[in-house]
Amino acid sequence: MDLRPITDPFRSFLYVAGGWLCVGLAVVGAVLPLVPTTPFLLLASWCFYRGSPRIHAWLHRSKLFGPTLDDWQHYHGIRQTMKRRAIVMVAAVVGCSLLLNSLPWWLRYIALAAVAIGLYVIWTVPTLPDDAPRAPRTIVE
Known about the structure:
The protein is mainly alpha-helical. It is built from six helices and two strands, in the order H-H-H-H-E-H-H-E.
């Protein structure tokens, strides 16, 4: 598989558009507990690398997303605080949603099964201790 940046303008545009879509989904995932953030960030980084090295560098330099991308690229894991926050947010929002809605009982069990799968995925991602040294910046100005 060729992983170099694309030179064809149309294909480059498609990669950049896909990257922005993934950034949008990552931002939504930062707010909504059932939408993951890190996988969309990683996919956005890859899309931008293929379509626009300039936007790829911007994403890695950003204060909001850069540290997460650097931790994943260097350590292949996420910080313990982020993992705890994700698990607590998912449990709180899903718990409130299931208590305050009028879904049929069978649909509630399907929702709980989907949430359990999502929590399992979060739980199995490698965890970095909060006091681990910050990953070196992968993209410098």
